[in-house]
Every structure is written in C-alpha cells, then in structure tokens.
User: What shape does this take?
Amino acid sequence: MNFNKKILATVVCSLGLLSPCLAQAQLQGQAAVKSKDAAGLSGSMQATINRISAESMRGHLNFLASDLLEGRDTPSRGLDLAAEYIAAQFRAIGLEPAGNEGYFQTADWNILKKEIRRRPGAAVPPPEPEPATPTIVRNVIGVLRGSDPALKDSYVLVTAHYDHIGMKANAEGDKIFNGANDDASGTVSVIELAKAFAGMKERPKRSIVFMTFFGEEKGLVGSRYYGKNPIFPIEKTVAGINIEQVGRTDDSEGPQVASVGVTGFDFSEVGAIIKQAGDKTGIHVWKHPVNSDRYFGASDNQALADQGIPAHTISVAYGFPDYHGLGDEAHKIDYDNMAKVNRAVAVAIEHIANSAVAPNWDEKNPKAAKYLEAWKQRHTAK
Assistant: This one.
C-alpha cells in the first residue's frame, strides 16, 4: 500500500464511506422519495430513482472536495487520491473494471501536456527538462453490462470530470480551490447513478459506462485522450450524458431549483430525451438562449461529440458566484436538488439504454453538422 492509499483508507473508513460501513451509512441517509410529479415510470425504474440519495452524495462530496485532496489539480497527489476513491466506490457498487489497469485508463502526463490546446495568443510556457519517469494520470472507468444479447455490446456513457484547479501558490490563509460544484458534484452524481442502476434486478438492454475524467480544467485532456484511445468502440457508443455543476442552485441569472440546462439542446435527440425524463420527474429541462450553444464545447461532452457520439452536458448553474474561486465548497451544495436532478438523468439514461433506436444528430441543425459528419465517418467505415 503506497502513501496515497494509506491516507485514503484512513479517511474513508473514518467517514464510513466504504463497504461494509457504506451500506449502513446509505441506509441511514437513504432518501427513498417517490416524486409527486413522477408519471409513466415502471415500478423497477421508480425503485431505481429512489436509490438516489442526497445524503449519500453529501458523504462522497465532502471527501472529494475536502482540503485533504488539495484541489485535485492535474497532476497531483490529491487527484490520485480522488481516483483511488472513485475506483473504490465503483468496486463496492459492483461495476466491472474497464480500464487498462483495473478501473484506470492510464496515461503519461509528460506526453499529454505537450498536446494541450491553448487559447490563441496565450504565452507559450518555457521548455522543461524531460522527466526521467512517467507522471501517471488516470480516467476512472466502470461498466454495467447490458442484459440484451444483441444490444449489450452497445454503450451509453455517463461522465464527469473529477479534477479541479489545485492550490494558489504562496497564498496566506485558505489557498485550496476545493471545486465542490466544479466538478465534485458531477463526480458524485456519476457514482450515485452507478449505484442506482447496479441495484436493478433486470439491467437495461444496453451497457452503461460510468467514467470520470482527469484534466478537464487543462483543456478536456482526459476526455480527448479517451476519444483517441476508446475502451469501448466509438461506433458502438450511442450517446453520452456529461454532468457538470449540478450542485449549486445560485445561478448568476437567478435561482435554478428543480431545473437543469442542456448544452447543445437541439443538436441531437438527446436533449429531447432528457426533457421528457424531466417531465416525468418534475424537473424543468430547458435550452438557455445563449449558454446552451455557447458552452457545448466547454466541457467533456465536446471531446466525445468530436468522435461522432451524440453527447451533451447538463448543468444546473452555468455561472455561479464562486466559479473557480476559493468559495466553491461543499456546504454550499443543494444536495436535495442535486438528487432530484439525478433522478431525471437516470430516467433519460434508462430510456436510451432500453431503446432499440439510438439517438441521432439533427441533420437540419447546421451547428450539429460537423458532429454528424464524424458520426457518418465512423459508421460508414465499418
């Protein structure tokens, strides 16, 4: 056991977040709340969304956004601890490991950082001496295999980035950017959704891949790495729902309660599927008149869409007061609202995973043209 794992084991056991303590903590905090607005859900799906617990996510997030993880910069000790923690949750849930090293898809940061896309006009950093050993960074990936003999070899991606921006050098007082909403909220949502689906007696027809990325804050590096080195065939990946900033309701334009936006809402049929799921669970799913399109390329869905996968990001708040600030901390998260939003997401995932027809890009929307072309290239090449 290395130093990072020793710290991880000590902390998570004390918090009661790993099996067998996990089961007891989740039972005590389980919010098995049947939505008053739910309509048209099967008994199995209602039981699935009832397993999504605000208190469970509170426990996970309080660890991932704690000072111990030092802001989860890429690369860093804190990022490594977060990766180990997420993998431990996937293991306890019963997901099948899907990386090249167990639950980890590994890469060498020393190589990847040379390919980081910088904004036009940004200063080029001075050359650094080549490190003697690799600096390993990891996407964390688990899969819940589908139940249908024909559709189980097709995949729905449920993703978030688990990194943040680290610490402020030479600062006095608080210097750790904890990144509770950006994007520990998405990370714990992926964990909670995995737990909810893993508890189903009969799994969905398609396989569901639960994945958290490193290096989003450095320019979607982890998701771009996955896009170039997919664990599951891109042409067999039917859709992606990326989860970012779903914990804060204090949007800069006004409170967003029981409400979630979708980037590139009308670029593909996925937006309408999420909206239908929201209608069934009492969540307002909408297209922001500016930010829906503007932020399509600002999160990890972009790297997947570039490969032709109809992939979108959901967010409760596009902008909030502590974005990339020291104040983005766990106590400001609205856990009950986050659970409600994730129940809608679960219904959307289940719809895609059980449908014989995969979502399509909108051929009439010019903003979707390049992604549709990437999809066609993938599917005509086979």
Remarks:
- The chain has one domain: 52-112+137-380.
- Residues 12-38 have pLDDT under 50 and may be disordered.
- Residues 59 and 74 are 23 Å apart (CA to CA).
